[in-house]
Design a protein that fits this description.
The structure holds two protein chains of two kinds. By secondary structure, chain A is mainly α. Chain A is built from two helices and no strands. Chain A has one domain. The radius of gyration of chain B is 53 Å and the shape is rod-shaped. The chains are: A mainly alpha, B mainly alpha. Chains A and B meet through helix 1 and helix 2 of A and helix 1, helix 2 and helix 3 of B.
């Protein structure tokens, strides 16, 4: 048992949000009106919400790793 | 003023659709991971508890073996003492029999001397009979001595055997006591490990709940806003296509 699956998911979802931001940014030269700014702000909020998920995931991984370390002690 | 192309809108639509696919099920996956991790944690804690139980059982067994060995040593030392108590009496009996033998030999010697100075055949015969009787008693004395000396030797052998057994038992006890001390130390460490595991598990449980909750929350809010944006982009595309399809003649 380890935290690797959680870390893998966190990396995947972080990559997904980065991919979304990148995809939206690619349209920027072709979309100049205020609606694009609205869309960008919406995507930024998604990125911001991801932080809570990442923090919770990190805390979880730390707790799981600590449990693993204790469990592996041999006497 | 509107400044957008259908190409830009389709690029955005594609990114939004890909994102929806990427985050779909994040909440369910987090919940499954949580279940797997909690299950694995419980197995580890059960293992740790079994280790403590096994160590405690070994302590009980070692303690019992030490007590039995102590009792065995006490019994054997008691036997040695009892055997040793018999030795003086037996030695005294042997000395007494030697004394008797010496006395009888003296009597035989005196009778021989008197026989030499005796003229009468009847008297000599009588003296000889007495000498024969005394010789028989000497022989019995010697037989009893030999028997007692054998018994004394056997007793000493038995004492030596028992003493060796006592020494072996003492060595075994020293090893058992050392093993017991080591096992008690190990048991304390295992109990401490189990307590720390229980505390760590509480933290894992709590953090997993927060993680699953965060995953579900992120999936829900990001999916909702992405769907909204995708629908809006679809409307924009439909609007532009309708505009481009308008026949202005």
């Amino acid at each position: 048992m380890s935290s690797s699956e959680i870390r893998k998911d966190m990396q995947e979802f972080q990559a997904a949000v980065k991919k979304l931001s990148g995809g939206i940014a690619q349209a920027s030269p072709l979309w100049k009106d205020s609606r694009f700014a609205d869309l960008s702000a919406s995507v930024s909020r998604v990125a911001s919400e991801l932080k809570d998920f990442m923090v919770a995931g990190d805390e979880c991984c730390i707790a799981v790793d600590r449990f693993d370390r204790i469990a592996s002690e041999k006497y | 003023m509107v400044q957008v192309t259908t190409e830009a809108l389709r690029m955005v639509r594609s990114s939004l659709t890909d994102f929806l696919a990427d985050v779909e099920g994040i909440g369910a996956r987090a919940a499954q991971q949580s279940d797997n991790i909690l299950h694995a944690c419980k197995l580890q804690m059960n293992r740790a508890q079994a280790d403590v139980d096994q160590s405690e059982a070994r302590i009980v067994a070692l303690t019992k073996e030490i007590r039995q060995t102590e009792e065995s040593i006490r019994n054997m030392e008691g036997e040695i003492k009892a055997l040793a108590a018999r030795v003086p009496g037996m030695e005294e009996q042997i000395r007494s029999l030697r004394g008797q033998e010496t006395g009888l030999e003296s009597q035989i010697s005196a009778l021989r001397s008197s026989m030499d100075s005796c003229d009468s055949p009847e008297a000599r015969e009588q003296i000889q009979d007495r000498i024969n009787g005394l010789r028989e008693r000497v022989s019995q004395c010697r037989d009893q001595q030999r028997s007692l000396e054998n018994a004394l030797r056997n007793l000493e052998d038995q004492k030596a055997r028992l003493q060796k057994q006592v020494n072996d038992a003492r060595s075994r006890m020293a090893r058992l006591e050392s093993d017991l001390a080591a096992e008690r130390n190990r048991c304390n460490r295992l109990r401490d490990k189990l307590e720390r595991l229980k505390m760590a598990f509480g933290r894992v449980e709590s953090d997993l709940q927060d993680y699953v909750s965060a995953a579900r929350g992120f999936e829900s809010s990001s999916t909702e806003s992405t769907h909204r944006n995708a629908s809006g982009v679809d409307l924009c595309i439909a609007g532009i296509e309708s505009y481009l399809a308008t026949d202005l003649k």
